[in-house]
Amino acid sequence: MPDYSTQPRAAKRTPRSRSRPRKFLRFLVFLGALAASLLIAFHTRIPDRLGLGLLVDNAAPWFGLLIPVLLLAALVSRSKTSLVVLLVPILTWVAAFGPSIIPLSWTAPEAAAQTLVLASQNIKAGTGAAAQSALELAADGSDVIALQELDADSANKVTDSLGAAYPHHFVVGTVGVWSKYPLEGSRSLDLGLGWKRALRTQVVTRNGEVQLYVIHAASARPNDHIDRDVMLDELASTVETDPQKHVIALGDFNATSTDRSFARISSVLKEPNQDDGLFGFTWPRDPFGMMRLDHVLVRGLEVTSNTTVPAGISDHLAVRATVNLPES
User: Fold this and answer.
1) Residue 55: its pLDDT value, please?
2) What is the arrangement of strands in the sheet containing 168-172, beginning at the earlier edge strand?
3) Range of the domain at 23
4) By mean pLDDT, which of 86-90, 91-95, 222-226 is the weakest?
5) Which of 267, 261, 162 is nearest to 220 (CA)?
6) Which candidate, 97, 102, 103, 87, places its Cα nearest to that of 43?
7) 137 and 36 fall within a common domain
8) What is the CATH classification number for the domain harbouring 242?
9) Highest averaged pLDDT of the listed ranges 35-44, 47-56, 175-184
10) Between the CA atoms of 234, 236, 237 and 242, what dihedral angle is there, to the nearest 10 degrees?
11) pLDDT score recorded for residue 1
12) Per-residue pLDDT tens for 195-218?
């Protein structure tokens, strides 16, 4: 008869050994919740060394994606405390970005008798599709069309394509504007760089003048965004001292609203929310947007609509806004 007493027995897992992975998961949840909360709330305080500041600023809204991952870890850890801890990054994200993603359609004023519809797009140099973008934006009912990344040939094609419907235009460097209404006082702006990537003009409507700024900010890369920062700062200074009551600035700012270099211009002008809410990412167009580099900013005007629309074959979506003109 075999002696089973001498056979090795399988080791049993004690409750203590089973709890170790769960404790580690709880620790990861706590650490992840703290990191996510700090990154969301204080991303502009991170030193911009080796381009880290630019990357973190632009990624700030996306840090919210850490929360579902942490939630899964909290559920696996079977810790009620972990679930409570997750309220910290959730509330931090909501406080930081919640007001900016509320649909404009919930609070927008009613359209007045006289409105102005403006559209803007970076048409992407070299595509040869500037005229296509312009015609599609015109078909959407735009009164003013601003384009960036133009060259002389594409600007001429836009003017020819829009024809008599947009008899007023002004082009300087890589930016241009075409309008159904007269343009006065048009001038180029170098914004501290010495080359022409911005303009200012007055759109003269039946209800008064609107000061319009069109900008194509310099490119921003992790270790090369000084020129862009200078342009945005100079634009803010120019607009801040502009005596005009009704002001609109639009174009490709090459900066997201969470970028620390965008903070000053957004304190001088206001960016309205999107009609349907969320962030209104404009780039890249395909397969899906990740950043909003193109903006419409206003002062002294009611915005009744603000949205993104596809036009042409650019890698940027166009932005389009409707504002109420002041009563004459």
Assistant:
1) 92
2) 168-172, 175-179, 144-148, 115-122, 318-324, 302-309
3) 15-101
4) 222-226
5) 261
6) 97
7) no
8) 3.60.10.10
9) 175-184
10) 120
11) 53
12) 889 999 999 999 999 999 999 999
Reported as half-sphere exposure (CB side, CA atoms, 13 A), residue 305 has a value of 17
Q: Residue 166 burial (CB < 10 Å; 0-12/13-18/19+)? A: buried
Report the C-alpha gap between 3 and 119 in whole angstroms: 89
Give the confidence band of 8 by pLDDT, cuts at 50, 70, 90: low
Count structural domains, the chain: 2
Give 204: exposed, middle or buried? Use CB within 10 Å, 0-12, 13-18, 19+.
Answer: middle
Q: Give residue 192's pLDDT.
A: 85
Q: How far is 71 from 76, CA to CA, in rounded Å?
A: 9
Q: Which residues touch 52 (CB under 8 Å, ≥6 apart)?
A: 46, 222
User: What does the alpha-carbon distance between residue 25 and residue 46 come to, in Å, rounded to a whole number?
Assistant: 27
* Confidence band of 137 (pLDDT split at 50, 70, 90): very high
Instruction: Indicate the residue type of 271.
Output: E
Q: 50: which 2 tokens?
A: 């080796």
Asked which of 101, 131, 154 is the last residue of a domain, the reply is 101
Longest dimension (CA), the chain: 110
Euclidean distance between CA atoms 304 and 309, whole angstroms: 16
- Do 318 and 171 belong together in one domain? yes
* Contact of 197 with 215, CB cutoff 8 Å: yes
Q: Between the CA atoms of 295, 296, 298 and 304, what dihedral angle is there, to the nearest 10 degrees? A: -130
Percent of the chain with pLDDT over 90: 73
Cβ pair 197, 188 in contact under 8 A: no
pTM of the model: 0.89
Query: Among 45, 74, 101, where does a domain finish?
Result: 101
Tokens matching residue 74: 């909290």
Do 144 and 46 lie in a common domain? no
Q: Within a domain: residue 8? A: no
